[in-house]
Amino acid sequence: MTTRTRILTGITTTGTPHLGNYAGAIRPAILASQDANADSFYFLADYHALIKCDDPQRIQRSRMEIAATWLAGGLDVNRVTFYRQSDIPEIPELTWLLTCVAAKGLLNRAHAYKASVDKNLETGEDPDAGITMGLYSYPVLMAADILMFNAHKVPVGRDQIQHVEMARDIGQRFNHLFGNGKEFFTMPEALIEESVATLPGLDGRKMSKSYDNTIPLFTSAKDMKDAISRIVTDSRAPGEAKDPDNSHLFTLFQAFATKAQEEEFRAELLQGLGWGEAKSRLFQLLDGQLGEARERYHQLMSRPADMEDLLLIGAKKARAVAAPFLAELREAVGLRSFVNQAAAPVAAKKKAAKAARFVSFREDDGSFRFRLLSADGEQLLLSRNFADGKAAGAVTKQLQSGQTLDIRTEKYGFNVWLDGECVAESSAIYADAAQRDAGIDTLRVALTPTED
Ligand code: TRP
User: Is 3.40.50.620 the CATH number for 5-197+303-348?
Assistant: First the structure.
């Protein structure tokens, strides 16, 4: 049974990543994804980008640049699920289901929306001047991103903590209204990386596009060198001792250096290394670390069809999780097929329910397990091992009680959960998602109690 932590984060596709984005978000996320216990979902939040930007050219360029940056930075798409939000139609669909349970009062409190209202009030405008429903509903779309994949951890900047809390709030409400005791949605937690560097920009303030003080990441070596030459330093001349701890040039160096390199640089500054020379050391360090990735970046950008392919594969992986889950959610809110619920199939349902049977057995190690067999002897479920027969019996009883089943898909198989514990799994690994879902349907029918 996998117990990997699902880590999910979105990158809003406006703008071109700079060195600060790289050190603060991209590099740590790529590193985190290499952990064997991490099941990472990283995506381009391009629906979110539309909220902030109505320039199609810019949206398109940014999506490509950000995809290329993450791939060039070493993101392994075989390991993580890397996709564009806009390739997952289940996301806007879930957004609507969540919109229908999200309290308006909750969204009124969102910082981003409130800031816009406050600004309008300050300038004597109508409070809602220039505010779109996109901005207002931003947190619901983000909740759908997170809840769709039952993420455990959501690495974000501090400004996004509130949104993750809103996702919990909305998810909880949905669970409560439609879950029948079952938790459809996992409660996500915001993950704030305290140790991660917020890089200073050229002028020493936080590196940010809005301060126009950024160092470009992959555009070209020359651009990087030019930006570095504009880093503000004090006016100490070559030969005069510099104060590394009050130099943001040193802070930038630190963020990319080994301990040894850092100490060497510190000593040199204390000994009077000139700022010009110091800047060229910084350039060499960065170029050494990022030069190869920069080349990969330009290769990727020159072959957009390859990136398109990779992202479509990512979308397929993501949809293999999203589609069956959304089908369950639609079912839960009452958007059900007329056919499956209509009078006619009841007979078939009864028959299946009558005929399906639990068969328990003992393993060599003395533990107890059971199978659920369908009318024609097909194995529908295989339980996990229980220490005693009583515990196994209690589970079979609960499964037959008619409560909504907590079925979680896992690639082309599925698991059945009770009270926060996985109690059984599909015995087959199905050939594809459709067959797996058919298997789930059969199981549901088999476990639906008859009325008599
Ligand atoms: N709103 C996030 C930001 O601006 C981006 C984002 C969209 C996101 N959907 C998400 C982050 C889901 C984490 C999880 O940074």
Answer: yes
**Residue 167 CB–ligand 1 contact under 6 Å:** no
Could you give the CA distance from residue 74 to residue 434 in angstroms, rounded to a whole number? 33
- CA distance from start to end of the chain: 37
Q: pLDDT tens digits, residue range 292-332?
A: 999 999 999 999 999 999 999 999 999 999 999 999 999 99
Ligand 1 mean position to 6 CA, how many Å? 15
* Residue 170 to residue 138: CA distance in whole angstroms: 13
Residue pointed to by tokens 């067959």: 435
Nearest ligand 1 atom, CA 151:
14
Cα→Cα distances 223→219, 220, 228, 283, 407, Å: 7, 5, 9, 11, 52
Residue range 362-387: average pLDDT? 87
Q: What is the pLDDT of residues 206-234, one digit of tens each?
A: 999 999 999 999 999 999 999 999 999 99
Q: Which of 52, 137, 160 to mutate to test the pocket of ligand 1 (most atoms within 8 A of CB)?
A: 160
Coil vs helix vs strand at 269: helix
Residue 450 CA to residue 448 CA, distance in Å, equals 6
Q: What's the fold here for domain 218-299?
A: Tyrosyl-Transfer RNA Synthetase (1.10.240)
Domain with CATH 3.40.50.620 in the chain: 5-197+303-348
Domain with CATH 2.30.29.80 in the chain: 354-446
pTM here is 0.75
Q: What region, left, alpha or beta, does residue 192 occupy, with left being phi > 0 and alpha being psi -120 to 50 degrees?
A: beta
Q: Ligand 1 centre from 380 Cα, in Å?
A: 39
Beta bridge partner(s), residue 7 = 40, 153
- Give residue 245's Cα distance to chain centre: 36
CATH 1.10.240.10 domain span(s) along the chain: 218-299
CATH class (in words) of the domain with range 354-446: mainly beta
Q: What is the mean pLDDT of residues 141-169?
A: 96
242, 270 Cβ separation under 8 angstroms:
yes
